[in-house]
Amino acid sequence: MIADWDDVLVPKHHRNYFDELIWLNQLYPSAAAFVFSRPHSTLYTASIPEKFNLASTIETAQISWHHLNTGKFVGLPSKFNGTWIHAPTRVKPGHDKMGLL
Asked: Could you say which protein family the record assigns here (predicted)?
């Protein structure tokens, strides 16, 4: 599995990322990759490390589902021949990229 590990992808149907991907792979067996929507987000954090508070940062996050950025993908290398950090570039015949909201 190839993914951009510094991204936070939140599962919608399962308790963890791994189970979500297993489920998606079973639901879409021809998928070479799953592209997760990435809404524009704004985070406000402390300007000095001593005042940083993760809970406060998450609670005050502003997320816009009306402005989507380039999606993030998780792919199965056996189903494509090339990749770029944000998408599989050459999906093998018989497989698809599945866009997710």
From this structure: Belongs to the glycosyltransferase 92 family.
